[in-house]
Design brief:
Helices cover 69% and strands 0% of the residues. It has 7 helices and no strands. The termini are far apart.
């Protein structure tokens, strides 16, 4: 291995480690945001829970080309999908669990995330999962969702 290629791999490894560390920190941050729901997550409260200043958290998010609002929306979207697939809560209860004051606000947000209403997503999800796919276990089925 030449010096140049050795240097490249060393740089790449350090870069990969930095990306893994960054992804872990973002995942930790998302977990903290999800814990705050159904209350509307606030940057100051999240920073305090993570023992950092709110300004440091803002700089960190800016350095990772994201925002607190974007992470809150990602958490809400992920949880909404889980709740809708679980069929335990009705749409009003899901909206409340995710910190939306109105069901209509949740429905509008969900449609912007997923391209369909929560009811349609739930219906497609249950229809797709209940279909029989010979030779393919339930866990490995890929669910595809189109737009309305």
């Amino acid at each position: 291995m030449t010096n140049l290629s050795h240097g490249f791999w060393r740089y790449r490894t350090k870069n990969d480690e930095k990306n893994v560390r960054c992804n872990n920190q973002l995942a930790q941050l998302k977990q903290q945001i999800c814990r705050q729901l159904p209350q509307v997550p606030r940057l100051n409260d999240t920073a305090k829970a993570l023992n950092i200043s709110s300004r440091s958290l803002q700089r960190y998010l800016q350095g990772n080309n994201t925002s607190f609002r974007q992470l809150v929306n990602e958490c809400r979207h992920q949880l909404a999908q889980q709740y809708l697939q679980g069929n335990t809560f009705n749409i009003q209860q899901i909206a409340t669990q995710l910190g939306f004051e109105e069901q209509s606000s949740f429905q509008k947000a969900f449609k912007s995330w997923q391209g369909c209403s929560p009811g349609v997503y739930r219906q497609r999800s249950s229809t797709t999962i209940s279909r029989s796919y010979p030779g393919q276990p339930l866990a490995s089925r890929q669910v595809m969702y189109g737009t309305n």
